[in-house]
Amino acid sequence: MACSGILLIGINRYVLKINDHALSFLLGLFISLTTIFVINIFRNRRTMNDPEKLKLHRITHTDERNIEIGSRAMYFTTYVMIFVLVILAMIGSFVSQQLMYTASGLMNVFLISYLIFYFYFKKKL
Q1: Do the Cβ atoms of 5 and 34 come closer than 8 Å?
Q2: What separation in angstroms does the CA of 77 have from each of 41, 50, 71?
């Protein structure tokens, strides 16, 4: 993952002439994602090797209260995200056409993915 990120940045840097700010942003993004990925691998490996931690992990992730808390948090976060994207699209229509199209595109991706998963889980569950 890190190698593909570095390769992508290296190729785009010389072919597309990305400015330094975007290059730094992308490099930081790839490094942070790679770091999180590696930390999760070590954490999961340590959990799998310790029976007590594995039991605690299973209890934590199958507890109905924790599942409901996560579900409600995701529900309200979704509404906040949609609200922010609508405001961004409205402000973007005055400031930048690209910003408006990006925010509108993100709302459309969210709506389409929601509908796909809704009907998928409606059939499956």
Answers
A1: yes
A2: 27, 34, 10
